[in-house]
Write a structure and sequence with these properties.
elongated, alpha+beta, Tetrahydropterin Synthase, Chain A
């Protein structure tokens, strides 16, 4: 298997109503997303790529476009409460369903801050 990773950014607002700390109040995050996809060595096309980074960028933009600059507590598609774990799982599902045939999502990192993130991995 060969993998490639693309990083992008998006912003969102939310609050966690049952959280005992500051997160129970509305606030925002500037998040980074790192998407790692892979393909079998033998399945690399004539172009020798796992996926063209331009295509991967479009797939990521479509997924984060559902969240970017929105208030996630009002977003009916995101599981509630909109924790970083729920956001990450939501994005993993969106990304996986929009990748080209033969390209698989293997790892997804979604940061909430520069030093806190959630990670999704394929089994």
């Amino acid at each position: 298997m060969i993998s490639v990773t693309k990083q992008m950014s998006f912003c969102y607002g939310h609050y966690l109503p049952d959280h005992p700390g500051k997160c129970r109040s509305p606030h925002g995050h500037n998040s980074k997303i790192q998407v790692t996809v892979e393909r079998e060595d033998k399945d690399l096309g004539e172009d020798g790529m796992v996926i063209d980074f331009g295509i991967l960028k479009k797939v990521i933009e479509e997924a984060i476009g559902l969240l970017d600059h929105s208030f996630l507590n009002d977003n009916q598609e995101v599981p509630q409460p909109p924790t970083i774990e729920h956001i990450t799982r939501f994005l993993a599902i969106e990304l996986s369903s929009n990748l080209p045939f033969g390209v698989y999502l293997t790892k997804l990192l979604v940061s909430e801050t520069d030093d806190c993130w959630a990670e999704w991995r394929a089994k």
